[in-house]
Design a protein that fits this description.
Blueprint lengths: L11 E7 L6 H6 L7 E6 L6 H8 L5 E5 L5 H15 L4 E4 L11 H9 L5 E5 L12 H18 L12 E4 H4 L13 H11 L4 E5 L13 H26 L4 H29 L6 H27 L6 H15 L1
Parallel strand pairs: 1-2, 1-4, 2-3, 5-7
Antiparallel strand pairs: 4-6, 5-6
Length: 335
């Protein structure tokens, strides 16, 4: 009997967002291996006519060009590519940039964990090989480290790194449940995807890959977006905590977070007020007052650390597309 969680002949699609990539896009398509059955080149209202170039010069029968009437950013282009791949009945959808930074020969490494039932979504990580990351510019390296920390907090995937890496693959059954119209369409797309996937309890894993920087010009400036992303990460963090710890489920962590925050703020506020008050009187703050302030602060920190430990332990580990296949198989057997 075949394992119903693994398609007998999986259909793999590649989505290629195309915006000012006329120098690289044909070479990228030519490098895509036979394991891919469909290629969707999404022309995101490219001023250089990337889509028309593909239509005129590319003879690969797997290729279909999708045109966006307005520029929607990488997120909007990928979502339209996802829609086209889902309509075509594809099982796994890989996103590869059209600028030549991503090696198409790695596609099997990205789809294998999904087809084997280990993951719902895979993404690249350029930080596995310490020798290779030396190629990365220092500012980009520092920015990625900061963004990774923020992404861990906002997405809940504490096991991941390199959040701005756009080399990804997703099972179509998971992609169908994504709120396409709500996902960020610009540079926050990759990290917002992780937040959305966590709300679905999807399993996400990193795939090691080397950093590659050629003659392409990136529009992403890490030094500028670290502060820009801070608000969006904070928003997603509170939304995720509300969804996972109050709306969908309640646990000890649901009590630890607000109680710890209350104790920390009340103890800190009480201590600060008394310190300012006694400083104005030119008096030393009484030891009892210091203890009344320090005790709730310490208890609050412990409770918040306990919540953090629970959150880290709650990283999704059961692929949802595999569970769905098993349910479908059970319905067929019982039908």
């Amino acid at each position: 009997m075949n394992d119903l969680s693994i398609p007998v002949s999986p259909s793999v699609a590649v989505v290629l967002p195309c915006y000012k990539v006329t120098r690289h896009i044909l070479d990228v398509i030519a490098a895509i291996g036979p394991e891919v059955t469909h290629i969707f080149a999404v022309d995101d209202c490219c001023p250089d006519g990337s889509g028309k170039l593909v239509q005129e010069k590319c003879r690969d029968p797997r290729v279909r060009v999708v045109f966006n009437e307005q520029n929607q950013g990488v997120g909007g282009a990928v979502m339209n590519g996802y829609r086209a791949a889902i309509e075509a009945g594809c099982d796994v959808i890989v996103k590869v940039d059209g600028d030549g930074q991503m090696d198409p020969s790695l596609i099997p490494d990205f789809i294998e964990p999904i087809l084997s039932g280990e993951a719902d979504y895979t993404k690249g990580n350029r930080f596995f090989d310490l020798e290779q990351i030396g190629q990365m510019p220092p500012m980009r390296l520092f920015g990625n480290a900061m963004l990774s920390l923020l992404t861990k907090l906002s997405s809940g995937y504490w096991n991941l790194f390199d959040p701005t890496n756009g080399y990804t693959a997703i099972h179509a059954d998971v992609a169908r449940h994504l709120p396409f119209n709500k996902i960020s369409k610009r540079y926050f797309f990759e990290t917002d995807m992780l937040f959305r996937l966590n709300t679905l309890h999807a399993v996400v894993i990193d795939v090691p890959m080397d950093a590659s920087y050629g003659d392409e010009v990136s529009n992403l400036k890490i030094s500028k977006i670290v502060t820009e992303f801070a608000f969006k990460h904070m928003r997603n963090f509170f939304k995720r905590v509300f969804y996972n710890y109050y709306l969908r489920n309640m646990s000890l962590a649901s009590i630890e977070a607000p109680l710890g925050l209350l104790l920390l703020l009340s103890g800190g506020g009480y201590g600060l007020w008394n310190w300012i008050h006694h400083a104005r009187l030119n008096q030393a703050t009484p030891a009892g007052t210091v203890m009344l302030s320090a005790l709730p602060v310490l208890m609050g920190v412990q409770l918040l650390l306990a919540f953090l430990a629970q959150d880290i332990a709650s990283v999704p580990r059961r692929p949802i597309h595999k569970t769905k296949k098993r349910r479908q198989a059970a319905v067929v057997r019982n039908g």
